[in-house]
Design a protein that fits this description.
Length: 232
């Protein structure tokens, strides 16, 4: 199944380079995904293709108007059904690996990037089915968040990564942080690679990695460790 992601943005140039390189590009080149960026200004109003306006009630900052967004959304919806229409916003649910795993099984996703102060609430009420935040901070727009979400989903599609097991052993997949990683040389600036990793005993290596992953999680992210224990 090929995944298609449509991204609506008032500043599409911010999306182009990150999504045309590395893992996202590989997913597209292999025919496993399609990422389409839509310029909201193509649906803008009037001679100057306006997409934003002042907010009712006063206050600083511009808001993306409902008409251009609705026109773009409805054009896309007329072409295909979407599993989710996602708005990237600071007040959405915080993105985590579990959410990524679930969304990676979808066929068609639409991402809406806010800009300035955000989008007209009526678009959220009428069209949006899922709201996602990448953290408790504010960006200039939703484009960076859309890149984060898109990258996190495409790498989970079977066949995208050179080694499919790689995605399954990433940090957070099992509720733990990843253990320490080492590569050549076997000694660097007087610090040797742990002997167990050179032993060739795969069972003991996996036991060591699990032990170190638990230690690291308990030390750096006790919240993750507590959640993992509670689930068990």
């Amino acid at each position: 199944m090929k995944m298609r992601i449509d991204i609506i943005s008032a500043v599409p140039q911010l999306l182009e380079s990150p999504l045309q390189n590395s893992i996202p590009a590989r997913a597209v080149e292999k025919g496993l995904a399609e990422v389409c960026i839509h310029n909201l200004h193509d649906y803008g109003l009037g001679k100057y293709k306006q997409v934003d306006d002042y907010q009712f009630g006063g206050g600083a900052g511009m808001v993306l108007m409902p008409e251009p967004l609705a026109a773009c959304i409805e054009t896309l919806k007329a072409e295909r059904d979407y599993d989710e229409i996602i708005y990237l916003t600071p007040d959405g649910s915080t993105l985590d690996q579990s959410t990524c795993n679930t969304l990676s099984l979808c066929k068609n996703l639409m991402l809406i990037c806010g800009h300035y102060k955000g989008i007209d609430q009526r678009i959220r009420d009428l069209y949006v089915t899922c709201e996602i935040s990448i953290g408790d901070y504010v960006l200039s727009g939703g484009e960076i968040a859309a890149i984060v979400l898109t990258d996190s989903l495409l790498r989970l599609i079977p066949g995208v990564l050179g080694n499919e097991e790689s995605a399954l052993t990433d940090t957070f997949q099992d509720g733990l942080l990843a253990p320490p990683l080492y590569t050549r040389p076997a000694e660097f600036k007087g610090i040797p690679v742990p002997e167990i990793l050179l032993s060739g005993d795969h069972k003991k290596i996996e036991e060591w990695r699990m032990e170190k992953a638990i230690e690291k999680t308990q030390s750096l992210r006790p919240d993750l460790w507590n959640d993992s224990v509670d689930e068990k």
